[in-house]
Structures are given as structure tokens and as C-alpha cells.
Amino acid sequence: MPLLLLLKLVLTVHMTRGCMRMAAPLVGGGGGGGGAAVPVTLTAAATTSTTTISTTTTCGATNGMMGAKLFLSSSVPTMSTTYGMVAPLASNCMNCSAGSENVYPDSGSPNLVASDQKAIGSFTCTNMCICATDGKCYMIKTPETSAVFYPYCSNGACVTYVIINGAADTDGYVASDGSMFTVGQQFPDSTTTTRFPVTQQNAYMQAQSTGCNGCPVQMC
Predict the structure, then answer these.
(1) Are 69 and 132 in contact (CB under 8 A)?
(2) Vertex 88 angle, CA 132 and 201, to 5°
(3) Residue 17 falls inside a structural domain
(4) Residue 211 host element (H or E)
(5) Residue 23: inside a domain, yes or no?
(6) Model pTM above 0.85
(7) Structural domains counted in the chain
(8) Which helix H or strand E contains 18, and what residues bound it?
């Protein structure tokens, strides 16, 4: 074969090989040639989650008895015993310089009777405030007004009811929005001397706290 023809043939073969598609190389071992493929292991980082559980202690009697709660501000004067002044039950309720929350035993009757002596006590003061369980607070209307705090349990619920005494049917306690509880609301009419039972709807405030430093009552 002529030398020129042989050189053309070699050049053609070399160019053809340079244009061939090549597969991607496998991940090989170390410096040796042609080692087996080494698998790559991916490790996920461990994740630790923390759950915080908060607990709230419910104020109540520690002897298992049911009772009605009332926070008495340290500003409250010595209460009258005209309708009774029952001792509070042992409880886990809050107590601080502002006052103390107590749990009082069930009176057992929806009707206040002075001779039964089942009330928490009664008092009045110049800047007297009573805050109800719905969050609304009421200021005393007249100096002649006083309140008897009376614990009563019914259908598994215990409430401290406010029985109002005053010189007139209009005496009582008024909220900032103008709503009020008065002496007259607690009687069927102006000539009757027997009050409604404390379960009478809308006749009696359900007290949460009381004090003599204006509204609202500062608590712990």
C-alpha cells in the first residue's frame, strides 16, 4: 500500500474515536486501575424534638369538699357576723400581700337566714368594689349600702352570692357601663320583706373578689 494512503487511513480512524460518546466513569477505588465501584452511603442527621407540658393548679379545697371561692383584699375591714362568718376550708388557693382567695363551705340553702349563721360575712367601706365572676366590677353607690357574701352550691357548681342591704331599694352597686345590682332587685316587690332565693336569675351578683381600694380589685 502506498505510504500516503496508509497515513490517510490512520488519521481517519483516530478522528472517528475522538467523537464517540463516553459513559460517565464509575467511582473507583484508590490509585489502582480498574477497581470495583464503591457505594456511597448518605447518613441523615438525627433530630431531637422537645415538648414542654405546662400544668396549672386549680384553686380548691384540699379535703375534697366542694365550696364557693372569694378573694378578699387585705383592704377589707373586719366583717360583721350578723349573718355568720364561717371559717374557710383548707385550700391550695393564692395568698399574697394583696389579699387571699378562700374556699367557703356550702351553706346548704338558697335562702339567707340570719339565725343559720352560714354567710362568709358582711361589710361596707367608702371605696368598696365587688368584681363578679364574669369579669365586670361594681362600685358601691351610697354609704348606706353593705353586702353579705353567701356561699351556695347547686348542681355541682358553687358560687358566692352578694346579698345587698341598704336604706332604699335603689341602693346597691354600679358598674362603669351603668349596669347595677340593687336592693330592690332581690325582692318580689316593694312591700315584701322576704327575698328571692339566691338562685333567682339576674337578682344576685356572683362575686369573685372584693376590696376597699376601688375597682378593679387587685389580686395576687
Answers:
(1) no
(2) 35
(3) no
(4) strand 205-211
(5) no
(6) no
(7) 1
(8) helix 3-18
